Amino acid sequence: MRARPAPLVIGHRGAPGYRPEHTAAAYALAFALGADAVEPDLVASKDGVLVLRHENEISGTTDVADRPEFADRRTTREVDGEALTGWFTEDFTWAELATLRARERLPLVRQASATFDDRYPILRFRDLLDLVDAASDDAGRPLGVVAEIKHATHFAAAGLPLDELLVAELADAGWTDNRGLVVESFEPTVLRQLHERGFPGKRVYLLEDAGAPADRVAAHGSAAAAYATDLTLRGLYALGSGAADPSARVDGISVETALVLASGSVSVSLFEDDDGSIDIGAVTSDLVDLAHSAGLSVYTWTLRPENAMLPAEFRTAGREDEWGDWRRLFSILLHSGVDGVFADHPDLAVAVRDGR
User: Fold this and answer.
1) Most buried residue, 56, 76, 77, 251, by CB count within 10 Å?
2) For residue 121, what is the DSSP state?
3) 151 closest CA partner among 274, 72, 42, 46
4) How confident is the model over 14-31, as pLDDT tens digits?
């Protein structure tokens, strides 16, 4: 049986373990540390510009709350069924957003990254595409983008269809072929819409271990089919090789690490003892094998080394911001058969993957 390629290491919002996420510094550092691709989150401005932010509510990732000229923009809004109070990208033009500065989203856990607060502006998607083109030239190899569309149903209701904006942006930037381009979303509707618009890259469905997609909830309320239905064998085949409608078929799924680590049947090869035996003390679920059998690639998120971010089994004695038994966790995930991992510290994932 032919071995699968080594999994891709994807800089999750750049390299936010070292620099505030979604900044040019974070993305450039991710590539310098060996990432094969980077993952931006896409939201929209009032004038239809795709902006890179973790969420459309930006009080925790920018200095907007300290800007008196924007004090009157603070509001409460429902996003995907949750009431949020703060400042929202869809209430600002890009020219206004461009004046803001980025801040570390987890300052207590990542105090070193927080020392770079307010140094960098926030970016448009177009800025990142230009950065990836330049980084690919410097690296002498094609580097990829795995873009997550955030809150598609919410933005569509506001007159900002993210699928339309994305396809237009790619055309303007000359990204009209599949050059390592992937788009992912927790909402299958926008993935179908991208197919119908002739999106040139791969489409990946993000899945959680609880809840239901916001687009299904908006359409069906409490009767909406949960993510759990997509994670069954029948559900996986309906997404992959068994899809009756080409627009409903996706290229892969992207799941949280708990779904890969969940108690299951397959032990993973990790560390060799002196006698050549393997000892890891953990097992993985059969999800990766089931998804592959349905013709789907599998990505997992997010590899992080800090105790506060690790499953209980991998935490060590010490502060929340100190690093736990991250190498063992990373090894389990990177040897689980997944096709790619998202990492906040890309160098750590690359080191484990490459045996360094």
Assistant:
1) 56
2) B
3) 42
4) 999 999 999 999 999 999
How far is the first Cα of the chain from the last one, in angstroms, to the nearest whole number? 26
Over the stretch 189-239, which tens digit does the pLDDT of each residue have? 999 999 999 998 999 999 999 999 999 999 999 999 999 999 999 999 999
Instruction: Say if residues 150 and 42 touch (Cβ distance below 8 Å).
Output: yes
Nearest by Cα to 124 from 104, 103, 96: 96
Q: Are 41 and 135 in contact (CB under 8 A)?
A: no
CA distance 22 to 269: 34
Length of the chain in residues, anyone? 356
Query: Is the CB of residue 346 less than 8 Å from the CB of residue 33?
Result: yes
DSSP letter at 119 equals S
> Which two tokens mark 137?
């030239």
pLDDT in tens, 48-103: 999 999 999 999 999 999 999 999 999 999 999 999 999 999 999 999 999 999 99
Task: Report if pTM > 0.70.
Answer: yes
